[in-house]
TrEMBL record:
CDD domains: ALDH_F6_MMSDH (cd07085). It comes from Catenuloplanes atrovinosus. This is methylmalonate-semialdehyde dehydrogenase (CoA acylating). NCBIfam families: MMSDH. Pfam families: Aldedh. GO terms for molecular function: methylmalonate-semialdehyde dehydrogenase (acylating, NAD) activity.
Amino acid sequence: MGGKPWPGTSTRTGDVFDPATGTVADTVVFASADDVDAAVRVASDAARSWRDASLAKRSAVLFAFREIMNARRDELAAVVTAQHGKVLSDAAGEVQRGLEVVEYACGIPTLVRAGFSENVSTGVDSYAIRQPLGVVAVISPFNFPAMVPLWFVPIAIAAGNAVVLKPSEKDPGAAVLLAEWFAEAGLPEGVLNVVHGDKEAVDALLDHPAVKAVSFVGSTPVARYVYQRGTAAGKRVQALGGAKNHMVVLPDADLDLAADAAVNAGFGSAGERCMAISVVVAVEPIADELVAKIAFRMSGIRTGDGRRGCDMGPLVTGAHRDRVASYVAAGVEAGATAVVDGRDPAVDGEPGGFWLGPTLFDHVTPDMSIYRDEIFGPVLSVVRTGSYDEALTLVNDSPYGNGTAIFTNDGGAARRFQHEVEVGMVGVNVPIPVPMAYYSFGGWKASLFGDTHAHGLEGVHFFTRGKVVTSRWLDPSHGGLNLGFPTQS
Ligand code: NAD
């Protein structure tokens, strides 16, 4: 459907809020299974001709899209802030990281270039080619409405597939803008289609026989479900799930650096990041000093409307704000020390916004719900341990394995941690170790179902399938019949 979201016939709708005012800013029509079927059919038709477009043509569209997106990045960031609530500088960062994947996809001619072996047998050559899959589905979460679609869509398209994108129903505006820009960049109609909706649309994509692969990002229960249902239907599925990221601080660390990092990674985007730090593991004897430094920095955080130069915006919906606040209550109830309680924040914003200030808990223990559950809000827990080994056990016992970080000035300790920790993305004195576009993004354990991470070479492989050709162009001489198994000669 080019840049326009799929029109559809469904009458089910959802509200899109401006989280900083609490008002309904838009409504979105949820696709029915029939709408999804119609979109997939259009994509199937488009995929047949798009796979035959030359690599030069496909990369030219990507380059043109890159120029449009780069010129209008502020517009995209503003849409993200208006519907998600994150502050403008943070939205601009998300747009930048998405743009980097577009730039990576511009190199598709070299990314799909494969090997050629001359004379694997006398007069016989062998070569590998990578071909597109056909129609692929991308299903994205609310927290990165621009970046997460951009982890997948540019590479899928550059590789010659057609895409049906189902963004989060909470903030679908960024996906619509991206699709419009792809149309402007010269992408043929039907190669990128946006359908809105919820479980009904997702299920229809998972069951549709013409959808060959699914890239999903969201919470762990839904990721597990998408992986199981999609693979049962014979599809290739990568399903990235939730997280509970630990930051280990060793006694020799630079505590000012560690405190800055804990605050930035704990409260940036109001904690609504899958790579947010939600647990600081302080290896004694530094916990008292570290907690004091974190609390001091938190007093300088300005919570408010992301368009007013504040540091931290609102949560995405009122229901989510209430859920996060209930975890703060549960932490107090369970006996953790609320060093800073964010439930009654001073805000620079409209009173109806979905506000919650930053909360810091100390003396958190692994049996507490604030430790166990992914809260996905501005709540940071400090767990005190006596040794590196105890800290490592804590991280490795977590069912999640998305991101982690260690803060230390001991290179040997950092090297040991990176070797021993069971987590997909590791930072050394870097709190949010999000890989660049040319590496791959993805966690371990309950943070990713499937074996392929997003973007980088793994992304290119996910959206293509390999074929190996063995060819012989006969010399004028002919070897005659031979019914034996082919071997080299
Ligand atoms: P979510 O799981 O509620 O929704 C994700 C997508 O699935 C949305 O498009 C939604 O419409 C759809 N969906 C929701 N419920 C469904 C159901 N029952 N059946 C089928 N589809 C369903 O996630 P969210 O709240 O939008 O996003 C936040 C979550 O995403 C957090 O858990 C966060 O950690 C995770 N996340 C993970 C990564 C990562 O890379 N691992 C990145 C970003 C976000």
